[in-house]
Methylthioribose-1-phosphate isomerase
Amino acid sequence: MNIFPNQVYPVYWYQDHVRLIDQTHLPNEFAVVEINRSDDMALAIKTMIVRGAPAIGVAAAYGMYLGAREIHTDNRDQFLAQLEQVAENLKATRPTAVNLFWAIDRMMKTARQTVGPVDYLKEVLKETAQQINAEDLETCYAIGDQGLKVLPEKPTKLRLLTHCNAGALATAGYGTALGVVRSAFREGRLERLYIDETRPRLQGAKLTSWECVQEGIPVTLITDSMAAHCMKLGMVDAVVVGADRIAANGDAANKIGTYSLAIVAQAHNVPFFVAAPLSTVDFTIADGTQIPIEERDPVEIYKIGETRICPFGVEFYNPSFDVTPADLITGIITEFGAVKPSELVQFQERRVV
Ligand SMILES: CSC[C@@H](O)[C@@H](O)C(=O)COP(=O)(O)O
């Protein structure tokens, strides 16, 4: 079931262009933007019109095809050299979510390995982007199913807590962490979802709560600083979050605030799950110290709406992600099963590219 109206998805191919749900306007306005050029896709990723690790991977795959379409040469070597430039431009948008790099590398590898004239290569790139899009949706459903197997058996109806938006909007549809919540809801296993508002960009308040309201999922919004209090009162049975990049040892980068949530969960003996596709696992890095952390414009923290909330003269630090060490994670829920962080390497061969 698609939670969006009129066969719209967060990222999808429509006739001869890509359409994106503009996530900067939700929840007040549901707008769809058309993307025809690779540069515009890069800008949409940078400005977070499209956001969330799997969704920016899908968007970047389409960005590669749009870029390929703009290259006018019949010479294969020249085509591949120019496509490399397109890839670099798209890779320079956001550094943390590895899905972006995974999708671009997969597209580049496809182009290099495909035999035939340039026009045929372009056609294959379009099909590959569409395949990445379709695969991501299937992967989310599988993560939802796998999550159901490892959520606590008691109580029958669970009170879950999530951070940021790892929902349909952050993927090709359905979601990873919110996919698990969604599956629990559909199976009658969800009492309530608590959502951290997720300072500073408020993806929890603006996006996750919007998704839940669309589907009738019972939801309570809290500020990030309330999670410990809620756990102390016994209001939370498990935490489920997404990830932007998971190292080979299971350290997981996700939206800023996830790490403190994991510490709080451990202090209260609340299981802490990370739900993510294998495209989010970066087996080339041993641990989380090697994950690049994006720093964003400080305006995100010194203004709420149009109002400045602090005096002039202060300095700012605005890291957009943090890394939760593997030992704070109860299980990593992938499309192939949920495992302890230390067991993640068993899936290495199953990762495409
Ligand atoms: C399935 S999305 C998982 C993560 O990408 C999500 O939790 C997150 O941190 C998104 O960050 P964002 O900065 O909004 O792109």
In short: The chain has a mean pLDDT of 97. The CA atoms of residues 258 and 322 lie 7 Å apart. The radius of gyration is 20 Å. The first helix runs from residue 38 to 46.
